[in-house]
Design brief:
3 helices; alpha+beta
């Protein structure tokens, strides 16, 4: 990830991520379908190797950023009923967020009008599903602590820490 500033300028973020996780569990308990979809998402993310559990996270020399997360439930969708959003804009204790110290990527595609005109230039067209395209971008191991999330399997279970190993298009 291209960063404008050194990551050590970030403040504390674990406490707010933990509070948001507990608030999320309040909603998960009320809605069994939401809970089922959320668990499936987290398990899939882990099983596909897109994140890893952090066993020893209390190394004070290591700079880490904990992203709160929540789900956007859209039952009318046929493919993805739940989309989990990792909030990299959440400010740390000193007001900075992960997004605030990253460079913005510019637009890499033409405007929609140009795309549509070019699409009609040839007699044949191909399309592709890019569902997990961004999840194929590996994050350098030294920056993975900047993409941490907290999760627990039930409200009574201990909180586990995970690091994203691959870029998430759902980090906003």
């Amino acid at each position: 990830m291209p960063l404008k500033n050194e990551p050590n300028c970030l403040g504390e973020s674990r406490d707010i991520a933990l509070k948001r996780l507990n608030a999320l569990w309040t909603r998960l308990i009320r809605d069994p379908q939401y809970l089922k979809l959320y668990r499936e998402f987290i398990h899939e993310y882990d099983q596909l190797g897109h994140m890893k559990e952090v066993v020893a996270e209390h190394d004070n020399s290591e700079v880490a950023y904990y992203m709160p997360h929540h789900g956007v439930l859209r039952p009318e969708k046929s493919t993805t009923k739940l989309r989990v959003v990792f909030n990299a804009t959440n400010p740390t204790s000193n007001g900075l967020s992960l997004n605030s110290i990253q460079y913005n990527g510019g637009l890499v595609q033409n405007d929609l009008f140009t795309i549509m005109i070019k699409f009609r230039e040839h007699p044949y067209a191909f399309t592709a599903d890019v569902k997990m395209m961004y999840r194929m971008i590996l994050i350098h191991e030294s920056q993975q602590p900047l993409l941490r999330i907290l999760w627990k399997e039930s409200p009574e279970d201990p909180v586990k820490t995970f690091e994203m190993k691959k870029q998430s298009h759902m980090a906003r």
